[in-house]
Amino acid sequence: MFLFDTHTHLDAPEFDEDRDEIIARAVKAGVSKMINIGFNRETIPSTMKLAESYDFIYAAVGWHPVDAINMTEHDLEWIASLCSHKKVVAIGEIGLDYHWDTSPKDVQQHVFRQQIGLARELGMPIAIHNRDAHEDVVRILREEKANEVGGVMHSFSGSWETAKICLDLGFHLSFGGPITFKNARVPKEVLAQTPLDRLLIETDSPYLTPHPFRGKRNESAHVKLVAEAAAEIKGITWEEMAQITYANALERFGIV
Fold it and tell me: How many helices (H) and strands (E) does the chain have?
């Protein structure tokens, strides 16, 4: 049975002591493909190194909204140049984050728009980070015609109303550890209504660790727990959920 972790940070410092073991444990758990996210000047090179070192690890490259204030035109050109690499499958994670105030909202929005424009120019799907910014995220996606490339709403946390807009724009919804939490009513309700052919699963490791490991470091092997929770919500077996989300990811990211 194949699993696809569509959003992970294997290059994070939390894995510096045992990265190879973490990757091996994921493979043993049935994770046959992963997308590592390079989102700033430090993590893009380490993401590319991982993608070039492992056949089953792919890369997304972009500029995170928290770091938006630091992005230059040179950085945008750098991202564009990397998109021709055979292992780069998306531009991301990009979007808006109104929880942290490290980058002003207007700067975040400008950088977000620039990267959507780049994705449209290159025909690349986008991976969206959205924290406490639902209204502005969907407005900008509409205004910048993101439906022309589509992509994935990473670790989706919005309402069903927001989800419907994203689905109408051609996006997939990705769910992670929070759907395993007892009190996570909204993401469970949204997942229940999301069409199976638009579902993806992820870990966002080392963050958002699923139950029963909540509070500890997350890892890609735990995507099986996400698949099991998603399957229970949908009333299918976890093997069926794994098969469906694996096929969805291959199609969404154009992986042959």
Answer: 9, 8
The predicted-structure confidence for 12-51, as pLDDT tens digits, reads as follows 999 999 999 999 999 999 999 999 999 999 999 999 999 9
Q: In the 3-class helix/strand/coil scheme, how is 103-137 assigned residue by residue?
A: CCHHHHHHHHHHHHHHHHHHCCCEEEEEECCHHHH
CA gap 237, 232 in Å, rounded? 7
Nearest to 9, CA basis, from 41, 35, 27: 35
- Output the CA–CA distances (angstroms, integers) from residue 218 to 66, 115, 127, 194, in the order listed: 21, 28, 20, 25
What pLDDT, in 10s, does the model give residues 175-224? 999 999 999 999 999 999 999 999 999 999 999 999 999 999 999 999 99
Measured between alpha carbons, how far is 189 from 200 in angstroms, rounded to an integer? 15
Proportion of the chain in helix, strand, coil states, percent, rounded to 5: 50, 20, 35
User: pTM for the full model?
Assistant: 0.97
For residue range 87-106, list pLDDT tens digits in order: 999 999 999 999 998 999 99
Helix (H) or strand (E) holding 94: strand 88-97
